Amino acid sequence: MAPIAKGIRVPGASSDHLLLDVQDADPPLAVGDRVAFRMSYGAMLLAMTSEYVEKAPTHDVADFSGRKMVSISAEAEAARILAREATGARLEAMNFDVVELADIDRPPSGLIRLAAGADRRIAHKALTATARATHSFGLIWIDSIAALMPEEEDGIDLPEVSVLARALGLDHKAGALQPQLSPENVVIIGLRHADPAEVRVLKDSRVSAFTMTDIDAMGMRDLMHEAIRIATSGTQGFHVSYSADVTEFAGWAAGSGGLTVRETHQAMEAIALSGGLLSMSVSGLTAELEPRIGTDAVNFVMSAFGKRIL
After folding, report:
1. pLDDT at 103
2. pTM for the complete prediction?
3. Are 70 and 91 in contact (CB under 8 A)?
Protein backbone atom coordinates (compact mmCIF):
# COMPACT_ATOMS: atom_id res chain seq x y z
CA MET A 1 0.00 0.00 0.00
CA ALA A 2 1.57 3.32 -1.11
CA PRO A 3 0.47 6.91 -0.32
CA ILE A 4 -0.75 8.88 -3.35
CA ALA A 5 0.40 12.30 -2.15
CA LYS A 6 4.05 13.20 -2.66
CA GLY A 7 6.54 13.09 0.20
CA ILE A 8 4.70 10.62 2.48
CA ARG A 9 6.53 7.48 3.59
CA VAL A 10 5.34 4.36 5.45
CA PRO A 11 8.10 3.40 7.94
CA GLY A 12 6.10 0.52 9.37
CA ALA A 13 2.76 -0.98 10.36
CA SER A 14 1.16 -3.48 12.73
CA SER A 15 -2.17 -5.30 12.59
CA ASP A 16 -4.09 -2.21 13.69
CA HIS A 17 -1.69 0.74 13.34
CA LEU A 18 -0.05 2.45 10.37
CA LEU A 19 2.95 4.73 10.89
CA LEU A 20 3.35 7.59 8.41
CA ASP A 21 6.23 10.02 7.98
CA VAL A 22 4.59 13.22 6.71
CA GLN A 23 7.51 15.57 7.30
CA ASP A 24 7.95 16.15 3.54
CA ALA A 25 4.29 15.79 2.53
CA ASP A 26 3.26 17.98 -0.40
CA PRO A 27 0.87 19.62 0.28
CA PRO A 28 1.56 19.64 4.06
CA LEU A 29 -0.82 17.66 6.24
CA ALA A 30 -2.60 18.67 9.44
CA VAL A 31 -4.50 16.67 12.04
CA GLY A 32 -7.82 15.57 10.56
CA ASP A 33 -6.67 15.53 6.92
CA ARG A 34 -7.35 12.53 4.71
CA VAL A 35 -4.51 10.40 3.31
CA ALA A 36 -5.26 8.36 0.20
CA PHE A 37 -3.37 5.20 -0.82
CA ARG A 38 -2.89 2.98 -3.84
CA MET A 39 -3.43 -0.63 -2.86
CA SER A 40 -1.38 -3.56 -4.09
CA TYR A 41 -3.00 -6.94 -4.71
CA GLY A 42 -1.91 -8.17 -1.29
CA ALA A 43 -3.37 -5.16 0.49
CA MET A 44 -6.63 -5.50 -1.41
CA LEU A 45 -6.86 -9.20 -0.58
CA LEU A 46 -6.32 -8.57 3.13
CA ALA A 47 -8.85 -5.74 3.16
CA MET A 48 -11.53 -7.77 1.40
CA THR A 49 -11.14 -10.74 3.74
CA SER A 50 -10.82 -8.77 6.99
CA GLU A 51 -13.82 -8.62 9.29
CA TYR A 52 -12.59 -5.25 10.56
CA VAL A 53 -12.85 -3.47 7.19
CA GLU A 54 -16.27 -2.14 6.19
CA LYS A 55 -17.16 -2.88 2.55
CA ALA A 56 -19.39 -0.56 0.51
CA PRO A 57 -20.50 -2.29 -2.72
CA THR A 58 -20.58 -0.22 -5.88
CA HIS A 59 -23.71 -0.95 -7.88
CA ASP A 60 -23.69 -1.42 -11.62
CA VAL A 61 -24.80 1.59 -13.62
CA ALA A 62 -26.91 0.88 -16.68
CA ASP A 63 -25.08 1.71 -19.89
CA PHE A 64 -26.63 4.55 -21.81
CA SER A 65 -25.48 5.14 -25.37
CA GLY A 66 -28.38 7.24 -26.72
CA ARG A 67 -28.65 11.02 -26.96
CA LYS A 68 -28.03 13.00 -23.80
CA MET A 69 -31.15 14.40 -22.16
CA VAL A 70 -31.72 17.24 -19.72
CA SER A 71 -34.86 18.42 -17.94
CA ILE A 72 -35.01 22.02 -16.74
CA SER A 73 -37.13 23.26 -13.83
CA ALA A 74 -36.90 26.79 -12.46
CA GLU A 75 -38.71 29.21 -10.20
CA ALA A 76 -40.26 32.20 -11.96
CA GLU A 77 -37.42 34.71 -11.52
CA ALA A 78 -34.76 32.14 -12.32
CA ALA A 79 -36.73 30.95 -15.36
CA ARG A 80 -36.61 34.45 -16.82
CA ILE A 81 -32.83 34.51 -16.47
CA LEU A 82 -32.48 31.07 -18.06
CA ALA A 83 -34.74 32.16 -20.93
CA ARG A 84 -32.83 35.41 -21.43
CA GLU A 85 -29.59 33.44 -21.72
CA ALA A 86 -31.18 30.91 -24.13
CA THR A 87 -30.18 28.07 -21.81
CA GLY A 88 -32.30 25.41 -23.50
CA ALA A 89 -31.15 26.33 -27.00
CA ARG A 90 -27.52 26.32 -25.94
CA LEU A 91 -27.87 22.87 -24.39
CA GLU A 92 -29.51 21.61 -27.56
CA ALA A 93 -26.57 23.00 -29.54
CA MET A 94 -24.38 20.78 -27.30
CA ASN A 95 -26.39 17.71 -28.43
CA PHE A 96 -28.72 17.55 -25.43
CA ASP A 97 -32.40 16.86 -25.85
CA VAL A 98 -34.28 19.22 -23.54
CA VAL A 99 -37.27 17.18 -22.36
CA GLU A 100 -40.24 17.46 -20.03
CA LEU A 101 -40.74 14.55 -17.66
CA ALA A 102 -43.97 12.63 -18.08
CA ASP A 103 -43.21 10.55 -14.97
CA ILE A 104 -41.09 12.46 -12.47
CA ASP A 105 -40.45 9.35 -10.35
CA ARG A 106 -39.25 7.24 -13.29
CA PRO A 107 -36.96 9.41 -15.41
CA PRO A 108 -35.38 7.90 -18.54
CA SER A 109 -31.84 6.55 -18.37
CA GLY A 110 -29.19 9.17 -19.08
CA LEU A 111 -31.29 12.13 -17.99
CA ILE A 112 -29.60 15.05 -16.18
CA ARG A 113 -31.80 17.39 -14.16
CA LEU A 114 -31.16 21.13 -13.98
CA ALA A 115 -32.97 23.23 -11.35
CA ALA A 116 -32.65 26.95 -10.66
CA GLY A 117 -34.10 29.20 -8.00
CA ALA A 118 -33.75 32.27 -5.83
CA ASP A 119 -32.15 30.64 -2.79
CA ARG A 120 -30.57 27.40 -1.56
CA ARG A 121 -33.92 25.74 -0.87
CA ILE A 122 -34.00 24.92 -4.58
CA ALA A 123 -31.07 22.61 -3.86
CA HIS A 124 -33.12 20.58 -1.38
CA LYS A 125 -35.91 20.17 -3.93
CA ALA A 126 -33.40 19.07 -6.56
CA LEU A 127 -31.66 16.67 -4.17
CA THR A 128 -35.01 15.14 -3.24
CA ALA A 129 -35.75 14.49 -6.91
CA THR A 130 -32.33 12.90 -7.40
CA ALA A 131 -32.83 10.71 -4.33
CA ARG A 132 -36.08 9.41 -5.83
CA ALA A 133 -34.34 8.53 -9.08
CA THR A 134 -31.21 6.75 -7.78
CA HIS A 135 -30.19 4.46 -4.97
CA SER A 136 -26.90 6.23 -4.14
CA PHE A 137 -25.36 9.56 -5.08
CA GLY A 138 -22.83 12.09 -3.85
CA LEU A 139 -22.99 15.86 -3.57
CA ILE A 140 -20.53 18.57 -4.61
CA TRP A 141 -21.70 21.72 -2.80
CA ILE A 142 -19.99 24.76 -4.37
CA ASP A 143 -20.93 27.53 -1.98
CA SER A 144 -19.61 30.16 0.40
CA ILE A 145 -21.63 28.64 3.28
CA ALA A 146 -22.14 25.07 4.42
CA ALA A 147 -25.89 25.44 5.14
CA LEU A 148 -25.45 23.18 8.17
CA MET A 149 -26.91 25.48 10.82
CA PRO A 150 -28.89 23.56 13.46
CA GLU A 151 -32.63 24.28 13.25
CA GLU A 152 -34.93 25.27 16.07
CA GLU A 153 -36.75 22.26 17.48
CA ASP A 154 -40.21 23.70 16.82
CA GLY A 155 -39.37 25.10 13.38
CA ILE A 156 -41.37 23.82 10.42
CA ASP A 157 -40.18 25.83 7.44
CA LEU A 158 -36.73 25.00 6.08
CA PRO A 159 -34.27 27.89 6.67
CA GLU A 160 -31.89 28.54 3.80
CA VAL A 161 -28.89 28.19 6.14
CA SER A 162 -30.01 24.68 7.17
CA VAL A 163 -30.65 23.11 3.76
CA LEU A 164 -27.71 20.70 3.85
CA ALA A 165 -28.35 19.79 7.49
CA ARG A 166 -31.92 18.82 6.56
CA ALA A 167 -30.82 16.79 3.53
CA LEU A 168 -28.30 14.83 5.62
CA GLY A 169 -30.75 14.22 8.45
CA LEU A 170 -28.62 16.12 10.96
CA ASP A 171 -31.67 17.93 12.35
CA HIS A 172 -33.70 14.71 12.74
CA LYS A 173 -36.62 16.19 10.81
CA ALA A 174 -38.57 15.03 7.76
CA GLY A 175 -36.69 15.68 4.55
CA ALA A 176 -33.57 13.59 5.15
CA LEU A 177 -32.31 11.82 2.04
CA GLN A 178 -30.71 8.76 3.62
CA PRO A 179 -29.69 6.16 2.62
CA GLN A 180 -29.25 7.56 -0.90
CA LEU A 181 -27.06 10.48 0.26
CA SER A 182 -24.39 9.84 2.89
CA PRO A 183 -22.23 12.51 4.58
CA GLU A 184 -19.01 10.79 3.51
CA ASN A 185 -19.98 11.42 -0.13
CA VAL A 186 -20.59 15.15 0.41
CA VAL A 187 -17.96 17.76 -0.45
CA ILE A 188 -18.19 21.50 0.22
CA ILE A 189 -16.03 23.71 -2.02
CA GLY A 190 -15.33 27.42 -1.54
CA LEU A 191 -16.38 27.72 2.11
CA ARG A 192 -15.87 31.27 3.43
CA HIS A 193 -18.34 31.67 6.28
CA ALA A 194 -19.27 29.30 9.12
CA ASP A 195 -21.03 29.95 12.42
CA PRO A 196 -19.36 28.29 15.47
CA ALA A 197 -22.39 26.01 15.87
CA GLU A 198 -22.08 25.10 12.20
CA VAL A 199 -18.38 24.34 12.60
CA ARG A 200 -19.16 21.85 15.36
CA VAL A 201 -21.75 20.13 13.18
CA LEU A 202 -19.36 20.06 10.25
CA LYS A 203 -16.53 18.49 12.23
CA ASP A 204 -18.84 15.74 13.54
CA SER A 205 -20.64 15.03 10.27
CA ARG A 206 -18.01 13.25 8.10
CA VAL A 207 -18.67 15.87 5.40
CA SER A 208 -15.50 17.00 3.56
CA ALA A 209 -15.03 20.76 3.36
CA PHE A 210 -12.51 22.77 1.37
CA THR A 211 -12.18 26.44 2.32
CA MET A 212 -10.74 29.19 0.16
CA THR A 213 -7.44 28.60 1.99
CA ASP A 214 -7.47 24.96 0.84
CA ILE A 215 -8.16 26.05 -2.73
CA ASP A 216 -5.26 28.50 -2.62
CA ALA A 217 -2.96 25.77 -1.29
CA MET A 218 -4.04 22.84 -3.50
CA GLY A 219 -5.17 24.54 -6.67
CA MET A 220 -8.58 23.91 -8.20
CA ARG A 221 -7.45 21.07 -10.46
CA ASP A 222 -6.16 18.81 -7.67
CA LEU A 223 -8.95 19.81 -5.32
CA MET A 224 -11.65 18.88 -7.84
CA HIS A 225 -9.96 15.56 -8.50
CA GLU A 226 -10.24 14.78 -4.78
CA ALA A 227 -13.79 16.14 -4.53
CA ILE A 228 -15.02 14.00 -7.41
CA ARG A 229 -13.32 10.95 -5.91
CA ILE A 230 -15.17 11.50 -2.63
CA ALA A 231 -18.54 12.16 -4.29
CA THR A 232 -18.33 9.10 -6.55
CA SER A 233 -16.98 6.58 -4.03
CA GLY A 234 -19.59 3.80 -4.03
CA THR A 235 -22.24 5.95 -5.74
CA GLN A 236 -23.92 6.16 -9.14
CA GLY A 237 -22.76 9.75 -9.61
CA PHE A 238 -23.32 13.11 -7.95
CA HIS A 239 -25.44 16.23 -7.73
CA VAL A 240 -23.80 19.66 -8.04
CA SER A 241 -25.22 22.59 -6.08
CA TYR A 242 -23.85 25.99 -7.12
CA SER A 243 -24.59 29.29 -5.39
CA ALA A 244 -23.64 32.46 -7.25
CA ASP A 245 -22.16 34.16 -4.18
CA VAL A 246 -19.33 31.62 -4.03
CA THR A 247 -17.77 33.41 -7.02
CA GLU A 248 -16.11 36.81 -6.88
CA PHE A 249 -17.34 39.20 -9.56
CA ALA A 250 -15.85 42.67 -9.93
CA GLY A 251 -17.84 45.22 -7.94
CA TRP A 252 -20.20 42.62 -6.36
CA ALA A 253 -19.91 42.55 -2.57
CA ALA A 254 -21.72 39.21 -2.07
CA GLY A 255 -18.93 37.25 -3.75
CA SER A 256 -15.98 39.17 -2.28
CA GLY A 257 -13.06 36.87 -1.47
CA GLY A 258 -14.55 33.93 -3.32
CA LEU A 259 -13.56 31.81 -6.28
CA THR A 260 -12.43 33.60 -9.38
CA VAL A 261 -14.53 33.25 -12.51
CA ARG A 262 -11.80 31.10 -14.04
CA GLU A 263 -11.60 28.85 -10.96
CA THR A 264 -15.37 28.37 -11.11
CA HIS A 265 -15.18 27.38 -14.77
CA GLN A 266 -12.30 25.03 -13.96
CA ALA A 267 -14.41 23.30 -11.29
CA MET A 268 -17.31 22.93 -13.72
CA GLU A 269 -15.04 21.64 -16.49
CA ALA A 270 -13.69 18.97 -14.14
CA ILE A 271 -17.27 17.96 -13.33
CA ALA A 272 -18.08 17.61 -17.04
CA LEU A 273 -14.95 15.54 -17.71
CA SER A 274 -15.74 13.17 -14.85
CA GLY A 275 -18.96 11.98 -16.50
CA GLY A 276 -20.58 11.64 -13.06
CA LEU A 277 -23.08 14.50 -13.15
CA LEU A 278 -26.61 13.28 -12.34
CA SER A 279 -28.25 16.62 -11.57
CA MET A 280 -27.46 20.24 -10.83
CA SER A 281 -29.06 23.13 -8.99
CA VAL A 282 -28.22 26.82 -9.19
CA SER A 283 -29.30 29.27 -6.49
CA GLY A 284 -29.15 33.02 -6.24
CA LEU A 285 -30.96 33.74 -9.52
CA THR A 286 -33.25 36.59 -8.47
CA ALA A 287 -34.82 39.55 -10.22
CA GLU A 288 -32.34 41.84 -8.42
CA LEU A 289 -29.29 39.94 -9.70
CA GLU A 290 -27.14 41.97 -12.06
CA PRO A 291 -27.56 40.67 -15.63
CA ARG A 292 -23.81 40.13 -16.08
CA ILE A 293 -23.73 37.81 -13.06
CA GLY A 294 -26.75 35.88 -14.32
CA THR A 295 -24.96 35.51 -17.65
CA ASP A 296 -21.84 34.12 -15.96
CA ALA A 297 -23.91 31.75 -13.81
CA VAL A 298 -25.47 30.24 -16.92
CA ASN A 299 -22.02 30.05 -18.52
CA PHE A 300 -20.87 28.01 -15.52
CA VAL A 301 -23.78 25.64 -16.11
CA MET A 302 -22.70 25.25 -19.72
CA SER A 303 -19.19 24.32 -18.58
CA ALA A 304 -20.59 21.70 -16.18
CA PHE A 305 -22.59 20.19 -19.04
CA GLY A 306 -19.50 19.91 -21.21
CA LYS A 307 -19.24 23.08 -23.31
CA ARG A 308 -15.88 23.26 -25.05
CA ILE A 309 -14.14 25.85 -27.17
CA LEU A 310 -12.68 23.29 -29.60
Report:
1. 53
2. 0.78
3. yes
